[in-house]
Amino acid sequence: MTEKKRNWKPATQLVHEGTLRSGFGEMSEAMFLTQGYHYASAEQAEARFKGEEPGFIYSRYSNPTVDMFEKRMCALEGAEDARATASGMAAVAAAVLCGLKAGDHIVAARALFGSCRWVVETLAPKYGIACTIVDGRDIANWEKAVRPETKLFFLESPTNPTLEVVDVAAVARLANAAGARLVVDNVFATPLFQKPLELGAHVVVYSATKHIDGQGRCLGGVILSDKKWIEENLHDYFRHTGPSMSPFNAWVLLKGLETLPLRIRQQTESAGRIADVLADHSRVARVIYPGRADHPQAEIVRKQMSGGSTLICFDIEGGKRSAFAFQNALEIVLMSNNLGDAKSLITHPATTTHKNLTDEARAELGIGPGTVRLSVGLEDTGDLIDDIVQALDRA
């Protein structure tokens, strides 16, 4: 990479970085829909498999289109290497499990997406990997949970769905002191508003299904870290278990990255305005938004995030019945458990994404019967505000 490229700003990186053109000189990234690759000689095939010659072997391991997506994400994130996966959960599972063995111990923040929590709390123990769940907002809780066999810390920040914020730098320092790796799910912040690797995290994961695609078209995930960790831990796991991204999805996600800054800026601006309107509405009991001064961890938000979020969490007076009535009255905002889409989406976590948690566990996370999570899209902000207000009034 040239000095000029190292000075490129994110918006430029997301249009140009990692582009690999064929002999035809195509402008759009080429889509290499192939399973395997031809070798010019038996000697070349041997050299490829021995790692003595660069090149592609099999699309389960790597593919030119997928490679472009990985390189572009590395440039944006400031990572040395990356592996793209078939989904965000494939990325989480691989990042968490690839470096662990029976007898190891995970410390994870309690505020996790339901499937992420299942991986560390249910799946990992089946293979002899213990897990301790902590309230991640207080670094003292992390410190108390550390054992001699602790090898991995895992958190998301802001969290799903209540937008709690964890001090990534503080947890990273503790992980280093304990000889553990810190894995951060950075989906809600996006790579534009938060840089976990710069804050000291060792591994970053994304569900590219969300903001990176941003238009509800395909699934994808990505794991980013230093080259040594990926080669020594992730590479063989990835190669032999096969959670690879399809070349078509990689192409779609490359197109999504080109417009990521434009979309995130507009969605975040709209989310901030909508959060202020919600905070003033009589039917809303609580609003949590990282861009507001009344966010419970506002000081940490200012320290580690350069922007707010496209997500808003709020509680509607009247519990589940009112929350359902509100959702059913919406005309523009659509009900879906996805997020980061060009279309505004609403979900009721207690009956969808976090329904498998106990009532007590949901209460600990601040998920009540009236809690809803709004993902703000690209519609006109005034239209969204009118839609939300009329639905609240009817609820």
Characterization of the model:
There is one protein chain. The protein has 395 residues and is α/β, with parallel strands linked by helices. The protein has two domains: 3-258, Aspartate Aminotransferase, domain 2 (3-Layer(aba) Sandwich), CATH 3.40.640; 260-394, Aspartate Aminotransferase, domain 1. It contains 16 helices and twelve strands. The protein has helices at residues 3-6, 10-16, 42-50, 64-77, 88-97, 114-126, 139-145, 168-178, 190-193, 227-241, 247-258, 260-279, 298-304, 319-329, 359-365, 381-394, and strands at 81-85, 105-109, 130-134, 150-156, 181-185, 203-207, 221-225, 284-288, 311-316, 334-335, 345-347, 371-375. Strands 1-7-6-5-4-2-3 form a seven-stranded mixed β-sheet, sandwiched between helices. Strands 8-9-12-11-10 form a five-stranded mixed β-sheet. Helix 9 (190-193) links the parallel strand 5 (181-185) and strand 6. Helix 2 packs antiparallel against helix 11, helix 4 runs parallel beside helix 11 and helix 5 (88-97) packs parallel to helix 6. The mean pLDDT is 95.
Percent range of helical residues: 40-55%
How many domains? 2
For this entry, what is the oligomeric state of its chains? Answer: single chain
Helix and strand run: HHHHEHEHEHEHEHEEHHHEHEHEEHEH
Q: What does the largest sheet look like?
A: 7 strands, mixed
CATH structural class of the largest domain: Alpha Beta
What is the overall number of helices? Answer: 16
Structural class: alpha/beta
CATH architectural category of the largest domain:
3-Layer(aba) Sandwich
Q: Which regions are unreliable across 5 or more consecutive residues at pLDDT < 50? A: none
Radius of gyration: 21 Å
Overall shape: globular
